[in-house]
Amino acid sequence: MERTMKHQATNADAGRAASTGNAALAGTMRGTDAVPRLLLVEDDATTSAFLAAAASALPAQVDTADSVATALELATHGEYALWMFDAQLPDGRGSDLLLRLRARHPHTPALAHTADREASSTAALLAAGFAEVLVKPLPASTVRDALRRLLGDAVADTPERYRPEPGEPGLPALPVWDDEVASRALNGNREHIASLRQLFLDELPQAREVVLTAANSGDVAAVRGQLHKLSASCGFVGAARLAACVEALREHPEDGARLAAFERCAGELLDNAAR
Questions:
Q1: Which of 156, 125, 160 is nearest to 140 (CA)?
Q2: Is the CB of residue 139 less than 8 Å from the CB of residue 188?
Q3: Which of 77, 95, 141, 238 has a CA positioned 20 to 30 A from the CA of residue 175?
Q4: b/e per residue 63-91 (b: at least 16 CB within 10 A)
Q5: Contact 184, 235 (CB under 8 A)
Q6: Are strands 37-41 and 61-65 parallel, antiparallel or unpaired?
Q7: All domains of the chain, ordered by start, with CATH?
Q8: When comparing pLDDT for 251 and 3, which is higher?
Q9: Which segments constitute the Response regulatory domain (predicted)?
């Protein structure tokens, strides 16, 4: 189901966002009281909530869409000060979305975000016309600094990346929850950490099922696609042990032992939350 959400600059709730619906299409896309309006396109709910909360604190008003189709509908009804596009979406690529919107809006700055750490992927996104590329997961401060640069308020920062060491696939030597990582990603905002973790846990059973079903049917591309999204979400909420299992399985999606470790890590996290 497609989602369209608005985050107000004065009340950035990472876990709950009001639907814009037709009101977003009818209203101005430039924001109010000199606050810029941004278009965020991201299909993973946890990642979307994190990025929207980070951007809202600029301050800014953020409309979110979870598909190319929804983004096109919003962008063709008005103008945004900046676009934030995920590199891979359920119905297309961020670079293709950018190309389609450039005909109507040739000067809107665009920022890409991706969980792909390969330098070649970053280079391809820059070549497609994105001004900057951010690698997820990353701290909220890095997101805001990139937005300030593109919106004209230059502030430099070096993107941080959460890279847990997998260790042995069957038993990653990491905590279930790493509060320090989550606090760094969300600037110590405990309410945002709690709401994002709950959203993450709500979606984890379905994500786990997608991975297991795809793996059992030999669909390596589908396994990697789901793990790609899950990797970023783990970093934002500090799900350290699951993040290690996800990274191990991404490297070798055909490995049965790593798949079993992923299933155990996900189950452990859900069991821990239920207590």
A1: 160
A2: no
A3: 141
A4: bbbbbbebbbebbeebebbbbbbbbbbee
A5: no
A6: parallel
A7: 4-151 (3.40.50.2300), 179-274 (1.20.120)
A8: 251
A9: 37-151
User: Among residues 234, 249, 180, which one has the least CA distance to residue 203?
Assistant: 234
Tokens of 41: 């396109």
Q: Are 243 and 266 in contact (CB under 8 A)?
A: no
So what's the pLDDT on residue 274?
Answer: 72
Q: What CA–CA distances, in Å, run from 194 to 54, 81, 93, 150, 236?
A: 15, 30, 31, 30, 11
What is the percent of the chain where pLDDT is above 90? 52
Coil, strand or helix at 109: coil
What is the rounded distance in angstroms from the CA atom of residue 26 to the CA atom of residue 256? 51
Question: Does position 213 have pLDDT exceeding 90, yes or no?
Answer: yes
Per-residue confidence band for 71, with pLDDT thresholds at 50, 70 and 90: very high
Q: Which residue has the tokens 């390969």?
A: 118
Checking phi first, is residue 188 left (phi over 0); if not, alpha (psi -120 to 50) or beta? Answer: left
CA atoms of 162 and 250, how far apart (whole Å): 15
If you write DSSP's letter for every residue of 154-192 in order, what string do you get? ----PPP-------STT---S-S--HHHHHHHTTT-HHH
Q: DSSP state, 83?
A: E
Angle at 12 between CA 4 and CA 198, to 5 degrees: 80
Contact between 225 and 203 under an 8 Å Cβ cutoff? The reply is: no
What is this structure's pTM?
Answer: 0.62
Q: CA 199, CA 188: separation in Å to the nearest integer?
A: 18
Ranges 59-73, 152-166, 200-214: which has the least confidence: 152-166
Question: Which of 32-41, 96-105, 128-137, 243-252 comes out lowest in average pLDDT?
Answer: 32-41
